[in-house]
Records
---
Amino acid sequence: MKYIIGIIKPHRLDPVPTPTAENGIEGITVSEVKGHGRQKGHSEIYRGAEYQVSFLPKVKIEMAIDETREDEVVSAITGSAGTGKIGDGKVFVLPLESAVRIRTCETGKQAI
Amino acid sequence: MKYIIGIIKPHRLDPVPTPTAENGIEGITVSEVKGHGRQKGHSEIYRGAEYQVSFLPKVKIEMAIDETREDEVVSAITGSAGTGKIGDGKVFVLPLESAVRIRTCETGKQAI
Amino acid sequence: MKYIIGIIKPHRLDPVPTPTAENGIEGITVSEVKGHGRQKGHSEIYRGAEYQVSFLPKVKIEMAIDETREDEVVSAITGSAGTGKIGDGKVFVLPLESAVRIRTCETGKQAI
Amino acid sequence: MLKRIWAHSGRVGILGLATMALASQPALAADKLDTGNTAWMLTSTALVLMMTIPGLALFYGGMVRKKNVLATIAQSFAITCLMTVLWMVAGYSIAFSDGGSLNSFWGGLSNAFLVNMGKDTLNGSIPDSVFMTFQMTFAIITPALITGAFAERMKFSSMMVFSGLWVIIVYAPITHWVWGGGFLGEAGVLDFAGGTVVHINAGVAGLVCALVLGKREGLGNESMAPHNLVLSVIGASLLWVGWFGFNAGSAVAADESAGMAMAVTQIATAAAALSWMVIEWVLKKKPSVLGLISGAVGGLVAVTPASGFVDPSGALMLGLIAGAICYWGATSLKNMFGYDDSLDAFGIHGVGGIAGALLTGVFAKSAIGGTAGLLEGNAGQVLIQLEGIVATIAYSAIVTFVLLKIIGAVMGLRVSREEEIEGLDYNEHGETVH
Amino acid sequence: MLKRIWAHSGRVGILGLATMALASQPALAADKLDTGNTAWMLTSTALVLMMTIPGLALFYGGMVRKKNVLATIAQSFAITCLMTVLWMVAGYSIAFSDGGSLNSFWGGLSNAFLVNMGKDTLNGSIPDSVFMTFQMTFAIITPALITGAFAERMKFSSMMVFSGLWVIIVYAPITHWVWGGGFLGEAGVLDFAGGTVVHINAGVAGLVCALVLGKREGLGNESMAPHNLVLSVIGASLLWVGWFGFNAGSAVAADESAGMAMAVTQIATAAAALSWMVIEWVLKKKPSVLGLISGAVGGLVAVTPASGFVDPSGALMLGLIAGAICYWGATSLKNMFGYDDSLDAFGIHGVGGIAGALLTGVFAKSAIGGTAGLLEGNAGQVLIQLEGIVATIAYSAIVTFVLLKIIGAVMGLRVSREEEIEGLDYNEHGETVH
Amino acid sequence: MLKRIWAHSGRVGILGLATMALASQPALAADKLDTGNTAWMLTSTALVLMMTIPGLALFYGGMVRKKNVLATIAQSFAITCLMTVLWMVAGYSIAFSDGGSLNSFWGGLSNAFLVNMGKDTLNGSIPDSVFMTFQMTFAIITPALITGAFAERMKFSSMMVFSGLWVIIVYAPITHWVWGGGFLGEAGVLDFAGGTVVHINAGVAGLVCALVLGKREGLGNESMAPHNLVLSVIGASLLWVGWFGFNAGSAVAADESAGMAMAVTQIATAAAALSWMVIEWVLKKKPSVLGLISGAVGGLVAVTPASGFVDPSGALMLGLIAGAICYWGATSLKNMFGYDDSLDAFGIHGVGGIAGALLTGVFAKSAIGGTAGLLEGNAGQVLIQLEGIVATIAYSAIVTFVLLKIIGAVMGLRVSREEEIEGLDYNEHGETVH
Ligand SMILES: Nc1ncnc2c1ncn2[C@@H]1O[C@H](COP(=O)(O)OP(=O)(O)O)[C@@H](O)[C@H]1O
Ligand SMILES: Nc1ncnc2c1ncn2[C@@H]1O[C@H](COP(=O)(O)OP(=O)(O)O)[C@@H](O)[C@H]1O
Ligand SMILES: Nc1ncnc2c1ncn2[C@@H]1O[C@H](COP(=O)(O)OP(=O)(O)O)[C@@H](O)[C@H]1O
């Protein structure tokens, strides 16, 4: 199993596919984060004092998936979150050793 | 070492065991996230316009633990966070390669 | 490649090195979290009722890096985020299998 | 004849007692509209409305958990709307009409739908329309105060039914007793701006609600800490500012009585806030913001009945005492008995109201309001005050209890356990703060 | 001679119509300052200013998405500043001077920069400085209301240019028509506090803006849910409180007319809120907080023209009807035609204003404002009201359209797509809520 | 005899200078309560209280970092309470009593605890209780303004001790100098509503605080960006609305003077906001929301001394100039000298107050306030204004410095470095915004 972490632009969340039987995504967890990469942030000026806001709002999405769906899911994300502009974000794939569904205590592929 | 990620219902955080000498949990980090799985979200209506709120509030907990405590910790979470209702959430176990305690620069098991 | 997760004190984010060509950090994602470890939280009293606030504000930083930069990056974090006081936080290193830059679909080391 | 004027001139009537000899004379003189008095009463009405929305709505809204903030605010707002209509339909008539043979107890329905209120009908030196609307804002805030006791768990529908019935069956009659020519006013109870009618009444009703509805889910285990005290400070501040309309407006004139009422209100409020602050600082090591604003509200409550009767020094003492008593009411008393008066409707309004009503009997000065208090040798006034307190508590407690039991049987009082845990904002109103 | 007094005494002039026989007499009597009336008008001015800042700013600011909250609030605040200066420079003169041969249409520029306003110049029984500033607050809120229609997408610079020109070319003349001695006032249109001048006018201009600017990016796909209704409830509450200055202040005196205006305003507002609440509860299963406050604002709008002419029972009916109509305006009507009136400037102010203007003709009572309405047998009044509505809609719509087209051609109206997606707060003002 | 009336009639006395010949005559006439004037002064008192809570509390609270928002708001609220009590105990006596042989400098303690204030004591045409409370609200806001200079680092306990001593030793005497019969009033300094007494005084004290306390931890490295400008906009709006009570209320009557004061206040404020906005737009490419509201507050400050003396055109000019000067004060000046006046108490209130006091001497019109300014050929008035400014700056700066040094030695002024980094909300008050 794999644990997919995606960092995307905030207003690109809506096009990201939500779980359906077909698209291999069983569940998805999102959170608000801030990021700094090639896209550098901006500055805000308050009464003459300039503050560097180095971090821009991003959205982090996390999905535990079956490894067979890896390519499919990664390209679903890149496909829908990409705008071709700087700051589009990244997708990272981490190994996932085990998973448990709290409600039923099912484990492994049943649990994601 | 293992890195445990749990996604649970927001009002089930309080029963989750906090670190004690006995329960094998040394530290815990939590954050507010939103999730979508079998439990699908709800809709809100503002002046006749219906908006789909696909993501429901969840809490994410993260713990770095010694691999010998894995079962113990996972069942502590499932035991306390479970309500038996849809949307209870998941526990994921990822491999953890190394850890450093910033204050002391201790590493490995000393650091978690 | 490695996926570095650091949990640090909120007001220690500013000294943490932002990505530059030299320091081996290509990008960084941060989020607000709360933590409990050896440092235990505090209590707040509202009209005589005492509430235990077990979790203290922390900042989580995440960086995907090339494994050759691991030591460098970890010590950059510990160096800048450490105050020597309880609650300084941890750095965790997880294995990272693959990475994709959404904008260009570059993968691997090009993508982090 | 006096009766009629009495019934019409509302709380002025009370002051009138002291100057009974002069009563027939000003009555005639009063038959002319005074633009200055009218200007102040128009303003006071706006100020008292502001106390409930957004004042009380925010004061309470900041103290609940985030999942219930909209539902809490909605209670004050919806009550404002409902009470307005009910006051026009029947409340004003019951409170301020001449009830004939039953006038000691209620005013009857002869003025239902305000049929007797012409455009040019005067009430003393101001239009009756202004007096009616001014009193309406009191009928709005009183049930809104009660919502603090059952916050975070009562059904919106049941809350509306309860508040609507309560204002007609409990509030309007008690108002009549004290200000409308009823038996408490006749007995000489001093209540300048509503310590008995508004605060003891609402506080006691709140206590009964807290007892009947039971505790919130998770109380004692989970944190019930206020989610955003900034909102509560805005609310408390607007309550304070608006209270000038409440107390100084209760002079129903822009005169010396109004001026002194404003001065003593300001002094007692500040003293009570400082008193709470110092006690908490000593006992709990830190002066909390919630403590400061709670003390201020406690002072406002306590000085309400006294505001037309005490002088600045009396107000200072009264405030210092009231701050301490309300601190006890909102911290120790509640824990002693273990009821869940969520936002201390009883702990502050009930306890502060009782303290204020008694202290009015202690500190009243004849040079201010025409009646001497205990310190000027008139011990009897404290007993008269006690009569007012006991009558209000008894009636309010019993009728509130019966009302809740009936409504509970018919439609239930609380949301389901799941809804309560998930939050009232979404479950009762379909909305969330994003 | 009558004309002069007329032009000066503003909306009082309208009431004057009914008592034309008496007009010359009070004119003389009015030449003395009345401190009570002045006190109330000073207060009313403060109240109406509070309606825009912070009232409307928050009402609108809470309804947008978080990325646009500062930009939305900034529109009301910047409009307040700009209109103040423009009103002093030319607006007051155009609206309230004697325009000589063109007096039916505008008042000319003879009083530009307030050159004729000495310290001791009276306007009826109050200083002209007070009347001017009171009217200024109306000139502030009207363009601020329009911003609800183009929220979340219009450029700040274009918004400023548009609002500035609009107040001079559209608002000031229409004000003159109705209150300044122009043809609608002469025709006998009843508009006590600005249903036509302010609300229909702003609502229609808003509709044109929504049509010309087009829809927000993502409408229909993304969630446009209000980010923080707590702010909107504060805003609606302060609008309600401040509206006492708007309506009761429009009596330009602290008298019976002001008193009755306040009472009926309160009643109609509450009735409209309850009406919207019940309809939504039945149709959508939950009574929303946004619905409650929207209904209240709808009621305030609808009772505005009526507030000096109807009695409490008329206000109750008017409010119940207006709540239902505004519900339809803000939900069905909008979806029917598919324009993106972001915060329902037309749906509530336009629709509610039209309903209120017509219902004024229905419920007007001669015992209240000197003019009978349909229910008292004077069907013609409804037609006269219609004349006012049609004239306002036509002029406002056409001139607004032309203005927008010109400004659009010169400097553009909307921010870029990227800026809109990222949010106006940072892109237009360089700031964010942290 | 004149002296007594003088001391009692407060700032009216200043105006009195111009009409000295008439002074004995109105004095007699004034011995009767005027309900209209009283109504307006009751209202003004409520408005000025609203300026501090919640106005200033929010204006400041929105500009700090989130970890300090409750502590910042608590300062304004606690000061409100403490100043109320101290004003009653001694402040009013020192400011407004007849100090006998020392009357040029202070009023003595003969009216401590308001012993001479009976219910029926009049002060001109209003009750003394109203005048006392109105003045109390000025004594509240002045030390509250100072808190902007030491925000985010001063200990709550030291802040309370400092503010309490400051109001007695600095504020009350300076008030006496200008309005209570002291030497500056005698010299003919024009200060209608407190440019010198309130704003220069508070601004200079703030500057001294900023210098003595030193910079905030992390200034220059970390972001000190305002955490929530929505709060600041609410605060600025309520300051603006409340300022009508401050300036028009300083006429102590609902008359032509009050009316004109309100009009010019509105115009100057709007002009200053637009002036700041345009300058920032040109220099920094974007018109910020913080700039808009800062400009408005700067305009309010600058027009405060002028509000009874200038006409609308003068106000327009004054506002435009003041906006530019305050922009410079809050951006360049501060950076030039490198002190950390956190929220620009000096940059806006000090600088704006000085500009306003001088410009009053420039734009004063004898037709408005009885005194001619520079533009009407009376160059001497600017010098007289300068005398007032210099005396205030010197006394305020020196005594503030000494007070801070003593308090610092006894109990310390700042929280510890750790507490400051972690935030004052939890460390000083034990609470957080959740
Ligand atoms: N190496 C990395 N580790 C963690 N997060 C990263 C990394 N690189 C980029 N990110 C995240 O992705 C976001 C977009 O990265 P950026 O380099 O600006 O985009 P792009 O690759 O499209 O130019 C950043 O703001 C950051 O949150
Ligand atoms: N495959 C997954 N990857 C990441 N998060 C998931 C995944 N499946 C579920 N979740 C998270 O767990 C939450 C609960 O999942 P859900 O399927 O609704 O619960 P249950 O398994 O109890 O029916 C989701 O809202 C989401 O946040
Ligand atoms: N084993 C762990 N797993 C996850 N997070 C941890 C763990 N141990 C510590 N943390 C995080 O690091 C923070 C600091 O830990 P703590 O033990 O208080 O610090 P220190 O090691 O400096 O004494 C905690 O608040 C928590 O957020």
---
Amino acid sequence: MNFEFSAEQVQLREQVRRFLDQHSSSAAVRAVLDGPPPYDAGLWSGLADMGLLGIVIPEAFGGLGLSYLELCVVAEELGRALAPVPFSSSVYLATEFLLATGSESQKRAWLPRMASGDAIGCLALVEGPGPIRARLVKAQVRNGRLSGTKIPVADGDVADFAIVAAQASEGLSLFLVDLAAPGTTRETVSTIDPSRSHARITFDGAVAEPLGPAGHGWPIIEDVFDKAAVLIAFEQLGGADKALEMAVAYARERMAFGRPIGSFQAIKHMLADMYVSAALARANCYYGAWALSTGAAELSQAAATARVSATQAYQHCAKNDIQVHGGMGFTWDLDCHLHYRRSNLLALSLGSLSQWEDRLVDCLKGAVA
Amino acid sequence: MNFEFSAEQVQLREQVRRFLDQHSSSAAVRAVLDGPPPYDAGLWSGLADMGLLGIVIPEAFGGLGLSYLELCVVAEELGRALAPVPFSSSVYLATEFLLATGSESQKRAWLPRMASGDAIGCLALVEGPGPIRARLVKAQVRNGRLSGTKIPVADGDVADFAIVAAQASEGLSLFLVDLAAPGTTRETVSTIDPSRSHARITFDGAVAEPLGPAGHGWPIIEDVFDKAAVLIAFEQLGGADKALEMAVAYARERMAFGRPIGSFQAIKHMLADMYVSAALARANCYYGAWALSTGAAELSQAAATARVSATQAYQHCAKNDIQVHGGMGFTWDLDCHLHYRRSNLLALSLGSLSQWEDRLVDCLKGAVA
Amino acid sequence: MNFDDTPEEAAFRAKARAWIDANAPRQFEDELRSAYYASLGITSEDPIPHAKAWQAKKAEAGYACPSWPKEYGGGGMSPIERVIWEQEEGPYWLLSALFMIGHGMCGPTIISWGDEAQKQHYLPPMITGEKVWCQLFSEPVAGSDLAGLRTRAEPAPDGSGDWIVNGQKVWTSNAHLSDYGLLIARTDPTVAKHKGLTAFLVDMRSPGVEVRPIRQANNNRDFNEVYFTDVRITDANRLGPVGKGWEVALTTLMNERLSIGSMIPTGFPELFAFAAGLETIDGPAIEDRAVRSKLAQWAVKASGLKYTALRGISALSRGENPGPENSIGKLVAGTMMQEIATFALDLQGPAGILTDKAVSPADGWFQVLLLRSPGSRIEGGTDEILRNVIAERVLGLPGDIRADKGMAFNQIPTRAS
Amino acid sequence: MNFDDTPEEAAFRAKARAWIDANAPRQFEDELRSAYYASLGITSEDPIPHAKAWQAKKAEAGYACPSWPKEYGGGGMSPIERVIWEQEEGPYWLLSALFMIGHGMCGPTIISWGDEAQKQHYLPPMITGEKVWCQLFSEPVAGSDLAGLRTRAEPAPDGSGDWIVNGQKVWTSNAHLSDYGLLIARTDPTVAKHKGLTAFLVDMRSPGVEVRPIRQANNNRDFNEVYFTDVRITDANRLGPVGKGWEVALTTLMNERLSIGSMIPTGFPELFAFAAGLETIDGPAIEDRAVRSKLAQWAVKASGLKYTALRGISALSRGENPGPENSIGKLVAGTMMQEIATFALDLQGPAGILTDKAVSPADGWFQVLLLRSPGSRIEGGTDEILRNVIAERVLGLPGDIRADKGMAFNQIPTRAS
């Protein structure tokens, strides 16, 4: 039995961390948060150069052909570093949709360009408030033309193509849409975390290329979401750990009443509870990583477990990181709010906590029955 | 505006507290908890002598004809003192059913004897696990004869008569059943809090005297439960306050690491949080008392608010009272477990927390609509 | 136990209501009712002139600073009349946000500690809204440990008796709009930290005072840093004796807690309304039992806060002072606000991240709340300080062990060893 | 990352499983599987002889005390073999509850601190189950502050080198069933509290040892008070040097934390099974979204604990020591157990108060849990102590300020001033 990452994977982590320390610094994140660029193009091409955009893409399509465990390691580091790049959209989602259900020619057309960072993909699924449900998708494709409005679309303003969920005559189906082609209008929308770009995309007769069998969109979405949930859980885990570390470091340094504030039990115990939630989330993420990398039957259960656990751990650690920092923690200049924003953003990507709780209980019921 | 008890009511409280300090001491409670007597008969007759069994019973029926505010004051003290007597069954429930829907002759027959402590009433409603719902009542009355099994019945083993909910041809109805008459078998059942006696009562053709209009049982039960919920909330409030006081006193005295444990923030803040929940519960109980005593239209809302708030405050304070006491708190000899038991018992009397949460939201919806 | 006015109270209420009906700036009523937390109330126009105009009007009619002595222009009302006035003023109360520091904290402190000249000079224009005040207490190194502040006030070398102030304050609301500030500075670093402080009234237009807005985590700029560089204050503007600055500060902080009207919002009414109106694909959100359970939990807390406040008002009307029990309001509301905002976003699903009013559910109200709420658990006393206050002052538990007890201020360690 | 055995591990597992199949007391399997928390496992018969018989059988086959040296009768297994053994032993592991203090705590301490004579004398009969051990640490005045213990050991006045012990211990599991105890006593009250302690191995049948059961809050009697009145212990039974009792105790407590197999239950699998089978008038309980939300919350905690333990086993199998991170298991499970019991009763409605197996839903299992659970947040380190351990030893935060730091033990205040 081995329930830890291998020595090679740990080495990969160190390499990625060193790279991100340099290229996804607070200043780099803030340049996106505060400024016009929708993502950090330099960081993106650096990740591409390291091959990290194609970790699970087969070598035949220009990727590294490694396992999901390596991708989990990278995801954790990206979350820790708040990397302001369209990684999750392009790698966890668009790539996975192509791998799961793309035709050979679609894979050939896009995967090599995605691995090299030349093309960015995104998922256009959500159409406003509410849970993620097949029935809530109103966009439709008739005669190969797509109409409808998707909001929010993570990285929709910077992606080259979108995987679009839309109603076809056979039911909910997936389509691949070139976002540079006519019939597509996109505008950036503001969110609680401007360090990750989001768009509203209006399709009005855009050419939509079928992706996978018509009418089978929903089960494919569910499968890809299970995988993406594990990967985003690792991002959340990385963020939670980083927020905890920031809080611990501050509590050891900051003096009040003639002693470090970390010597007060109120602060110590708050930090201990943060550690506990992050440690439980880590264990659950590893469970998810194991299920993802082995293709275990319980992937859905493991994914929902990792997702719920990591979502709450990150929200918990990020909000109390501010609390430990006191007034300073509520300033723009400190990085606490970057994690607070990101923790709340990631909590809603892929659907709300309540929806994942529901899914988890369904899985557990199935496991018992 | 006045949102506190009056000077007279405060005086009543002091008088009752002095009496209970003497007659509902820890030793008295333990005599019932540990011993054969199902309740403290001496305490019961003492309460009768003070007129407290008939506070809201009109003078015409041998009561004091006072307001519900006085009853709230007494309830809080009884809860504080863990009084091992069938007060809630006889006074908050049986009395209220008679007042709400009893015929003149029923009132004449029972109220004076209840006010004097000569007769004890109880409510036989629940028939095993599940929420309190009209449809779950299976007991039935045919031709004036009652059949069915009620469990648990608070004070069912010591009561002289029961208000029984049963299905009649007109629907759920209420009946008054003399428990000494034939066709009734009762046995004491063990519960998490043996300081308050409970029974299983099996009716097999017992004579059942209609109480109130046939088929109107459910709305009457709901009305009486609103009132009883406020009164039991005051018992819970009294218990919560007492548990908090015990914990505070211990934290100030008990030394560890050369200092009182109450100087450690972990303990201080636990106690502060207990205080907060008790203080919020107090405010909500007063809201309930106001609604109860003025017959306000929002009584249901106020009752559910007081009930939910006080249930949680008592459970919170009682469990952390043990925690503050550490190992000692988990011994039989200290009184901490008496409150822990009572808090969990009262949390389920009148139905579960979830059921009251549901009712509260219904009321709030109604208030908004 | 009743919520009814006495006949006198009813008469006062009727009079106040009639006056408000006739005089309030009704054009802002809707905007004030839906204002965001911690704003100056209106954004459709510059709020300052309207705030000052409403304050002046109230002062003229005797409704400004309701409980202050009439001789300085206050309302001279009884505590319960003050509460009635505040209830009737309703949404227009938000127009006073600009004056809250002055009226809630600086003014009462001057009334307690000022000499007659100071009262006559400073109180009337504070009441009429002509002069705006701020409070210069917190420093970067002195937050929860306020008595650890380092801004120095030293006797002017010219022997004039004036004081020369150097240092930095932080988290100063409205400093950029203020005419005066209530300052606590260290006049003797060689004695224990609580003993070496002195209070001053400082003209914010004095040379050497520099105000810089702080960009908060939520990207607002409601607070400021204030830098003092050789700022000269006459001894006539010293408030209270030299070395009694801590006692003066305590008066201010106690008054902060006493300002009953300033209950912070919980977000609950807004959440309930949102959930009640939200149709999901599974039916109305409010029929979802998980939603109901959370609503019920918050409902009893919101209700508990409301009736706790009413108990405080009852105490006032009996002539008693509400105690530090009121700390529970901020403690409970601060946490609730953050939890409610998080839950509201969850209810909205993936679109809950949107902040544009035009596309965000409920006009982005909960997103604003989410980003603002971490501050509410810190400002005016952190959750941890409030629990200490409750434990020590209400429950009588021992104080924390003081590492710096009895130490001269300049001997207290400033770095973790 | 995988859960698979290596070939060697698989071979070991197969061997262990075959031996258990052939030798375990199968007649108790069902009873052991549904045993209550903190029981000796079986109640249908006296558990003691069966516990001893199973232990003796395991010792004969080399499966008792799996990781201890073979020379004293232990299994000499690698850490991972030990874990595999424990997994395979499954429900029969509960039969070892009687020996848990000896095997989990006293034995490892003797292995670390004992001289050869002590090891040879005490370890073999401990391993075979012939001798039962208890741990004599806690005292009425020394719980979380264990080093504050007051039981005295003084040199016998006869100059024999023996020690005379007087004092009182409390919360001693199985003292009434024990042959020996590991005792910490104070041999020098004039030095700092951690410095004046010494460890001893005490024969529980010695004259002057009196064991009295404690009636717990849940009406069980699993623990004892132990009184020492002039109990004589030879110096040969001193464990470790005089004055090193605190260090000996730390070894014991560290081993307590290391005993991975001893994870306390959370109640979650039982709650899930109960909720999954519960039909309410509104449909299956598990379709109620409020129920689902709570189940999901507890599910991820239970899962987190499970995989945290597996991470610990992974560390063992790599030859690393699991650290104090394991404290999270007890902290999380203790609280969960109490919340789950409360919620299960709530699901049962008014009948949730019933404790008779015959009439209580789920055979009264959750009622037993409710009444037992407050103890789980206290025994073996309170929630508060565990948070301190995590904060200080895992996160590296400063220790609490020590009011008694450096004070001679007999100068430490014992009453609140």
